[in-house]
Write the structure tokens for this entry.
Amino acid sequence: MQAGWDDFRLVKAVADRHGLTGAAESLGIDHSTAFRRLGAIEKSLGVCLFERHRSGYKATAAGQAMIDVAARMEADIDGFARAIVGQSDAMVGELRITAPTSFANTFLMPILADFSRRYPAMRLELIFAEETLNLSRRDADVALRASRGPDETLVGRRLTGIGWALYGAAGRSFGPLAEEDWVGLTEGVAGGLFTQFIRQRTAPERVVLCLNGVAGLREAVASGIGIGPLPCVEGDGDSRLQRLGGLEPELDRDLWLLTHQDLRRSARVRAFMDHMAAAMLPLRPLFEGRAVSP
């Protein structure tokens, strides 16, 4: 039996997710089906593709060779799909957008609603994720990302700066901030930038809660668990919060709207990027922290 694309895709999924359970979930099949298919592939090829360990599946030399082929096939397929979409001038079909979860409750929904009214034949798929999705694989067509510079493989526009400041629960009085309880983002967010920021301002024992996302951080501060840094677009627009000082330049980020270079000529992508850029202009003072005085 000659291995087909579905066989290569299963083997790569097992490697990517270190086992059958994650591979099955990613491919939309059940565990028993994945188990049978992998066994059938190994039997037909006459080789063992994975060593089974308690820590997960580890590819053998034959398995790695198949994974490498699968990666090249996947890249070619993704490239073909991007090229087709990039050549399309039709304002119909699907557009996949990814954005941080916190944007759901701030500014994004009204902008998407207006875009949908203008282009009713288009269907939007919105993926909220804190992790960075892969635009080369078309996990999404366009991405809203807060960063200090986009990946060199991507193209797009800087929409606005993002100012940050310290916030606490509204209606409370605060003493020296170093003596207050703090909440912050985990070490894995932004390379530990926010962890370092807090370490420079208070003792480790004053940090009572760490989270992996801004939306949860806002709720923690508003609930009075502790004070903490927030983007001004999150903090200044929430009546449950009060700003505790000026802007913190070392936390500044830019908001980028990005796409893969193969998609930059797509009519759907161009229309969405133009729409977002125009809609963001009046929102810049809020994002940059200039809408209110501390």
About this structure: The first helix runs from residue 5 to 17.
